[in-house]
Write the structure tokens for this entry.
Amino acid sequence: MSTHMPGTHEIRYAQCWEDADILLEALNIKPGAHCFSIASAGDNTLALLTQNPARVVAVDRNRAQLFCLQLRVAAYRSFEYSELLQFIGSRPSRTRATLYRRCRSELSPDARQFWDARLHMIENGIGSAGKFERYFQIFRRHVLPFVHPRSRIRQLLRDGSPRQRRDFYHQKWNSWRWRLIFHLFFSRVVMSRLGRDRSAFSQVRGSVAGRILRRVEYALVELDAAKNPYLHWILAGCHGTSLPVALREENFEIIRSRLDRLEWHCASLGEYLHDTQPRSFHAFNLSDVFEYMPENDYHRHLKMCVRAGAPGARLAYWNMLAPRRRPGAMQDVLESHDELARKLFARDQAFFYSDFVVEEVREAAL
């Protein structure tokens, strides 16, 4: 999720709650490509390195989010794979403070000062350090137990056939109490106080909880909950056997060996692209950054991306509650890959979103 909103010292997202598997397939990154990425917590920015790009530029206006990315880079440089999972919080650990001391020297002075003052976050696992993750922690510890016992939650996270998942959801999970609690806890009012910044809802119309509940049902019935790392974290507070792209063992050494191709900048999307040369990038991971903008600002920033994109450059971004996709006036310079986006969105395990958009810069753009 994007953090392009006011506030520069609060960690809003300690993880990227966006499915990097569909992101990488959408962007179709070729070896030697130059990639642009909204930094957020850093997971998906690091996942781009698995595609062998020449350069990945991460941008975020919230310095705290860049400190999250820096800390992950330091962890990849300093730890073995099992230690990385413990440090993130994917696996239990009592040695995170010791691990931090081992990687601390890899941080910039500002990042070191930031994390030195937040050792309690380190000890709890840095994947839990954001406002959004604390929101889920409240839900997991204090709300969900009123609806479902732990045994039922464990049953939800087990392997099962589509038929078994459907029967379980409708017979055991989807109770009136579940629906009531969900509509209260994931309402616009509660989410803006505990989970996301109030400005995230400035462009949203209609029911928030109802839309999210429909996506949750899809994730629990149509997708395999046992293989969903995002759902597992929400319900269990850690990752299960399935992990996001950047945390998979087969990608650990690949990412570590390519960290020198990564750079980061504290700037808004518009600030950075304003000074970018035309045709600089071949892929754009734009998170859900456009959702926070009025429609005319979205169009203006989209044009900036087109200008900065080489012919054939792919743009990928999510809509959660505010619909954003290429206006008809830009069809000569930006092609919409709607069929591809629909196929990928059907597999999206980060189930908060209402839409996934894939677009491509045409040769006629310049």
Remarks:
- The first strand starts at residue 34 and ends at 38.
